[in-house]
TrEMBL record:
Coiled-coil stretches noted in the UniProt entry, renumbered to this chain: none
Protein name: Aminotransferase
Keyword check for Transferase: yes
Keyword terms: Aminotransferase, Transferase
Pfam families found in the cross-reference section: TusA
Domain of life: Bacteria
GO molecular function: transaminase activity
UPF0033 domain location: 1-59
Organism taxonomic ancestry: Bacteria, Bacillati, Actinomycetota, Actinomycetes, Frankiales
SUPFAM superfamilies named among the record's database cross-references: SirA-like (SSF64307)
């Protein structure tokens, strides 16, 4: 589900802007990396969340 949420929200992000996706899905890391690669976007940062899961910062390049 996190990738679907990311894809829905991403259209509203201006080029060079960033969005942060919080996910507690263990598969999210691999999914976000693949999504960025396939869509030509930049994964800027991944950091753990205090309550579990990870925060992914993605920059819109195109």
């Amino acid at each position: 589900m996190p990738i679907i949420d990311l894809a829905r929200a991403f259209g509203g992000i201006p080029v060079t802007g960033t969005i942060t996706l919080w996910a507690d899905d263990p598969a999210a890391g691999a999914d976000v990396v693949a999504w960025c690669r396939l869509r030509g976007q930049e994964l800027v940062d991944v950091s753990p969340l205090p309550e579990g899961g990870e925060a992914f910062v993605i920059r819109r390049l195109v």
